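Weekly structure sync, notes
Attendees: PL, DS, HV (note-taker this week)

Item 1: N-succinylornithine carbamoyltransferase
DS walked through the input record. Source organism listed as Christiangramia lutea. Sequence as pasted into the shared doc:
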Amino acid sequence: MKNYTSIADIDDLEGIIREARSLKIQNPESKVGTGKTLGMLFFNPSLRTRLSTEKAAKLLGMEVMVMNVGTDGWALEFEDGAVMNSDKAEHIKEAAAVLSQYCDIIAVRAFPELKDRKKDEAEQVMNSFMKYASVPIVNLESATGHPLQALADAITINEFNTAKKPKVVLSWAPHPKALPQSVANSFVEMMQRLEVDLVITNPEGYDLAPNIRKNTKVEHDQEKAFEDADFVYVKNWSSYENYGEVLNIQKNWTVNQEKLKNSKNVKVMHCLPVRRNVVIADDVLDSEKSIVIQQANNRTFAAQVVLKRILECAK
Ligand code: CP
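Item 1 (cont.): predicted structure, written out as tokens:
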């Protein structure tokens, strides 16, 4: 694996899930990351991604440097040919090239602005690092995807699944703020590659991008979608159609025990952070149905297997 910017960078999905689960059981003696440095750049806040990726790198023997670009570093210019006479002090051309002198892998988190769909879909930040850095790039959540989260999700479903072909439901849920579609996008792309029966449920106006949905079934009746589900993955996202907007939804889409009454053995997932009693009710999060903590734990092994494969490829 040369980079990990989208799940398309995984060519053997079953193999990488197997390897992650084996790393989880037994941390290998040989440290492929000894003498190597991971640089992590955050344009946005993080708890899980930051700490699990740092832990993963250290388990491989790597050194880790973290920078909150928005507050610690110079404001970066990404436009080619820009006349830099305002607030942006450093161009990505120099920044990425210099970081490549200090780091063996650069990992970047950069959320979308959710104002201009075309601009967000161009993935300017991630693609600029890909273009101007001379070392591998890892996506820590970009404008349109969160591939490390999706790999952790696949590992978690693999661990908890007892069905031959599990029914997996991705459910939209309310949120007071406009959130990216990144987690939902990568989750759908990941599930489309696995032996699962995937259903997306969301209110009208919240359909994900057509190039993400492809032929996946979209059910606008949430309770119908939940019938006999093995896994319900709950996540808010802002409208794709009315790009970046939070629409006025009449029905209550918060996931609670009552809604899960027809899916007896269901496991409930969420990438976290989760707003209790807005996105998912306490009666679900505090029940045995919830596997959100186990899911968050798997972020470490998803990151570890990705960093390991990149280091092995660069040898
Ligand atoms: N799920 C996830 O990416 O969490 P953080 O935003 O805390 O990193």
